[in-house]
Amino acid sequence: MQYGVFLLCAVPMADAGAGPPLPVDRRATNEEVWETTKSVMDAGVESERLGYDYFFFTEHHFMHEGYEVIPNALMAGAILAERTTSIKIGALCHVVPQWHPLRFAEDFATMHNFSGGRGVLAVGRGTVPREAIPLGATVGSTDDPEKRAQQDTASRERFAEALDVVELSLNNERFSYHGNHYDFPPEGIPDRGGTVEELTLTPRPIAPYERWQTITSPKTVELVARRGYGGVWWNQHLDFMKGMWEEFARVWEDEHGTELGAGEHRMKVVNVRIADTHEQAVADARPCFDEHWKFLGPYGRQVGFKGPDGKPASTDWIPTLEDGMDQRMFLVGTADEVAEQMAHDIEVLGANKLAIFPICLGDSYDKYEEQLNRFAQDVKPQLA
Fold first, then answer.
1. Which residues are bridge partners to 266 per DSSP?
2. How many CB atoms lie within 10 A of CB 83?
3. Is 123 within 8 Å of 90 (Cβ atoms)?
């Protein structure tokens, strides 16, 4: 088994919970954002000390609410690499369409090389129009349901081309790419008596690197498996996830001609909150859970829950903590209770890579580190 840590990188919020203020009314100060950034770095160092294998930031932009305040996980990752020696470093996820793909490739290679080969390339398309559009990307949104399918198609096309460019540039001494969205190098660039026909990225990775992509729908399963990336699932009901997990292995074998071992190239993100008693864990998790879904619900991220008809839940439904616990998507309780539920999921999926997401949105980073300690010391040994 390998274990990672995944953090949203949110500022502490003393008033987190289901009531006011509304997310749009929150305004984190610049000082809070920067103190949080430093606290996340400390959590990364602590994660290595506790023996975790991965540390994942998340990439988000313009988050005045304070929910996700690290916009450049590559720069943050390079800094964390200087403070650690063994833990693998990435993000869930790097939103490639919000970058110039060649600048992204340069920055990833730089971080990866400085880390001594510990960089993890984990990518996604993005989910928030407020972030995507100012940075030149497109993303489907529940705020614009009439155009959502069109926007989603455009987003997939741009993402696929951007990832093609990233891969070509990282893995080849010379490359060129001419697509609908990207053209490298453009025709006719003069250079010392000739024209530029190919480009060379400098630097490129000096060591192999892991490649992952987040998966939220059956449609993405095939795309990720055929590209040869590992799949990462978060906030998915186990019944939905098991089907996608198995389909991923089937498509991989069909495309690459190799049968995947149990859990190979697949990772599950697990939401946990641990306390000395079940009742205390529920009380601790509730305001963090409610704030989380007060924030994420309007973006339609609750479709990983199971609705009354057994199909994905409606995007206008906001789950309660009891919903999350009943559907076994949020593991809340004593260390023994959490370990028992995780052992069940591991057995059902055959999983061997888990990323731990502490249900702590709004809490201080002392609480995040306490949860990471509790899991490492009291849960992980039961899963060995």
1. 231
2. 12
3. no
| CATH code for the domain defined by 2-383 | 3.20.20.30
Alpha-carbon separation of residue 107 from 96, 122, 212, 300 (angstroms): 12, 14, 17, 31
Q: Is the pTM here over 0.85, yes or no?
A: yes
Burial 219-239, CB ≥16 within 10 A → b, else e? ebbbbbbeeebbbbbbbbbbe
- Three-state DSSP at 376 gives helix
Residue 271: φ, ψ to 5°: -85, 125
User: What amino acid is encoded at 283 in this protein?
Assistant: A
Contacts of 116 (CB under 8 A, 6+ apart): 81, 207
The 10s digit of each residue's pLDDT in 144-183 is 677 767 777 777 899 999 999 999 999 999 999 999 999 9
The neighbouring-strand residues paired with 183 are 178
User: Phi and psi of 21, rounded to 5°?
Assistant: -80, 155
The residue ranges of every structural domain in the chain are 2-383
